[in-house]
């Protein structure tokens, strides 16, 4: 009895101590939490609060009735999506472009970062970095416009050069076979330089003593890169790869929409452009919300799967 009374008497005292320690930690790191606050507010307002609107995916949403007054239809819109004749075309196009991005684009920032790290002339290194960063600050409208100027059959630089060499002009912008190569080249040109920032930061954090030990063992520049630099940034590569896999159905709307036309629609139409067509142009809000819900669910499943796979092979993962 005395023991139980003592424990119950101690419990109320333990809670204030825990609260005091929590507030002490918050007060100690208040500047750090203050720096985090704008990001938290952003995600709360623009990421979490709008998730309430996902309920219309299970309704026959009518704007004049609102969310509470609209009729509930369950999984009707999801059934319609999976039974649509265009579903597998959208799924095939989206997955194909994602795989092309993963195979051709994802390694490029890593290679660029490794190459820039080997440059010993700092002025040249910074100049190259600046030049490859610039395309990231251009909108996709500018990128696609430049592509049009370069590849159009009506006075395009590439086609004019082909014609001057005696070759036939090629319809790069309308032929289905050329859409995917152009798409990948545009992504690499715009984003590869910007993607090197994280890898260069990870390389800068590598212990210099590891390189000194490798040199003492007779390792040249390439062996140092292969046996020291790459293993040191492997965790960063894995984390970014997991996040990339989560965007398996999120390729972005504006880039594809600007490249899309009636001639290449069979290989260019993806879920993002389909949501725009069904939701905004045709007013099918509930159906387009169901398509977006499906995309988000697939992305979440892929992140969880990729994270578990990474942990199974000894990597840290993202959580």
From TrEMBL:
It is found in: Cell membrane; Membrane. Its main location: membrane. The chain crosses the membrane at residues 31-49, 95-116, 128-151, 192-213, 225-243, 285-306. The keyword Signal does not apply. Residues 91-306 form the ABC transmembrane type-1 domain. InterPro entries: MetI-like, MetI-like_sf. Pfam families: BPD_transp_1. The keyword Transmembrane applies. CDD domains: TM_PBP2. It is a multi-pass membrane protein. Keywords: Membrane, Transmembrane, Transmembrane helix, Transport. Belongs to the binding-protein-dependent transport system permease family. This is ABC transporter permease.
């Amino acid at each position: 009895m005395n023991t139980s009374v003592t424990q119950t008497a101690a419990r109320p005292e333990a809670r204030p101590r825990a609260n005091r320690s929590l507030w002490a930690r918050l007060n100690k790191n208040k500047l750090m939490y203050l720096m985090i606050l704008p990001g938290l507010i952003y995600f709360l307002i623009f990421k979490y609060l709008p998730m309430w609107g996902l309920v219309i995916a299970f309704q026959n949403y009518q704007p004049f009735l609102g969310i509470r007054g609209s009729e509930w239809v369950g999984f009707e819109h999801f059934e319609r999506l999976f039974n649509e004749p265009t579903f597998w075309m959208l799924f095939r196009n989206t997955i194909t472009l994602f795989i092309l991005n993963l195979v051709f684009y994802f390694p490029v920032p890593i290679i660029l970062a490794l190459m820039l790290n080997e440059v010993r002339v700092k002025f040249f290194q910074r100049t190259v970095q600046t030049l490859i960063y610039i395309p990231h600050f251009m909108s996709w409208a500018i990128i696609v416009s430049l592509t049009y100027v370069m590849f159009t059959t009506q006075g395009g630089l590439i086609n004019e050069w082909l014609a001057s060499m005696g070759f036939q002009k090629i319809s790069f912008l309308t032929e289905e076979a050329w859409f995917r190569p152009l798409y990948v080249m545009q992504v690499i040109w715009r984003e590869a330089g910007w993607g090197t920032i994280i890898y260069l930061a990870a390389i800068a954090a590598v212990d210099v003593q590891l390189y000194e030990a490798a040199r003492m063992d007779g390792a040249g520049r390439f062996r140092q890169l292969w046996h020291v630099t790459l293993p040191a940034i492997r965790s960063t590569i894995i984390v970014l790869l997991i996040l990339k896999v989560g965007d398996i159905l999120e390729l972005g709307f504006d880039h594809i929409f600007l490249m899309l036309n009636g001639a290449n629609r069979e290989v260019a139409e993806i879920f993002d452009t389909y949501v725009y067509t069904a939701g905004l142009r045709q007013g099918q809000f509930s159906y387009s919300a169901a398509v977006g819900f499906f995309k988000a669910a697939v992305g979440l499943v892929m992140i969880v799967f990729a994270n578990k796979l990474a942990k199974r092979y000894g990597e840290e993962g993202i959580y």
